Amino acid sequence: MHNEPLAFRMRPETIDEVIGQDHVIGETTPLYRMIKNGHVPSLLLYGEPGIGKTSLAYAIAGTSKLPFIALNATVAGKKDVEDVVKEARMTGKVLLFLDEIHRFNKLQQDTLLPHVESGSIILIGATTENPFHDVNPAIRSRCGEIVQLKRLQPEDLLNLLKRTLEDKKKGLGQEDIVITTEQLQKIAEGVNGDARKALTFLESLLAASDEENGQIIVEDDLLQQLLTRISLLGDKKGSHHYNLLSALQKSVRGSDVNAALYYLAQLLEIGDLTAVTRRLLVMSYEDIGLAAPDVGAHVVAATDAALRLGMPEARIPLSVVTVEMCLASKSNSAYRAIDQATKVLHEQPTGEIPMHLRDTHYGGAAQLGHGGYVYPHDTPVGSFGGWTDQQYLPDSLAGTEFYSPVEAGDETRMAAIYKRLLSFKGKKNPR
């Protein structure tokens, strides 16, 4: 009887056993030929969870016969890296597989990178995050290739499941299992291209199935119940999770209530309530903004209530504000304006604050030339309140406009006021 999980046992031992990924490791690819000829380059493997990054690393190690060490960057310390270096010095060359490589810290890098550069350590890093965004450039520059793995196709997973059922050494070949090709096909189609999930699902399915006369019999009803459940789940920290958050925001921005609720439901089933509430709060100001400024306060109240309530009740206030944001008037003018101001700040020398705006609440301010500010409240303009024509931006930016109003919802009124105030510039008695 095996103690290791099925997904662990069924990892390919050579590159010829790898399922799918023919664009990367197929027999006609340069990488396959290099490894077969005894040359293993340092690599970065990028892709979603469960599509074979770890399996490919182990398969490369099995084919190359190089001394192999596997570490996870989230838990590995400086001593672990030093041990890899020692092993490389003793054996001449080591193949290091580093999972979650985007979490590699500078101290670990400083210890390891010279040996990667010299070739005594061959580094295969794996990450679910975009390596161009999240992997340190020092690591990227020492890896000859960034390999993006693709989600496995149902036919790839079907072959893997069949191989597992037939394999008497590592798989389930010694078990008497009654399962149809149609049932295996449903599993292959229901795990979203994730090989690890497919094998874990098969293992759980068999554990939950009835045994009759020494046979494990898989029933359609049980299979469907389990498939329905796993289709709702995802990886809280993987790319798919961030894709869901992105899809939620873009659906709200596009005013599609049904799509927004669909993605919200998926995110809540995954269970990362903090990420969901944070994204909804950002959206209320980024996408609704001045067109419906009350929405921001509504979302603050709803997200606070959701975090206090927890699931499943949290779905109620969050669904309310999601629908409200979808159907609200929308404007991104304020955040575009601050981004434009920030851009100018970085691209141009910082302008001098006009003398009449500088602090005068101390003795000697007048000697420095500070003063001359006109108090706007003393000069009312119609029903707007106080306004006076004086310069607020630095001289080098006088007349610059960062804000471009959007005439939507409540911002229509604000846009009219903004344009009216601009028309007052240069007039002594605006009315």
UniProtKB/TrEMBL annotation:
**Can the keyword Metal-binding be found in this entry's annotation?**
no
The Gene Ontology biological process terms listed for this entry are:
DNA synthesis involved in DNA repair; DNA-templated DNA replication
Domain AAA+ ATPase, by residue range, is 39-151
What UniProt keywords are attached to this protein's entry?
ATP-binding, Nucleotide-binding
The GO molecular function terms of this record are: ATP binding; ATP hydrolysis activity; DNA binding; enzyme activator activity; single-stranded DNA helicase activity
Q: Which InterPro entries does its entry note? A: AAA+_ATPase, AAA_assoc_2, AAA_ATPase_RarA/MGS1/WRNIP1, ATPase_AAA_core, DNA_pol3_clamp-load_cplx_C, MgsA_C, P-loop_NTPase
Gene3D superfamilies xref list:
1.10.8.60, 1.20.272.10, DNA polymerase III clamp loader subunits, C-terminal domain (1.10.3710.10), P-loop containing nucleotide triphosphate hydrolases (3.40.50.300)
A single Pfam family it belongs to is: MgsA_C
Q: Does the keyword Aminoacyl-tRNA synthetase apply?
A: no
Query: According to its UniProt record, which protein family does this protein belong to?
Result: Belongs to the AAA ATPase family. RarA/MGS1/WRNIP1 subfamily.
State the PANTHER family in the record. ATPASE WRNIP1, WERNER HELICASE-INTERACTING PROTEIN 1 FAMILY MEMBER
What protein name applies here? Putative ATPase
Query: What is the native source organism of this protein?
Result: Sporosarcina newyorkensis
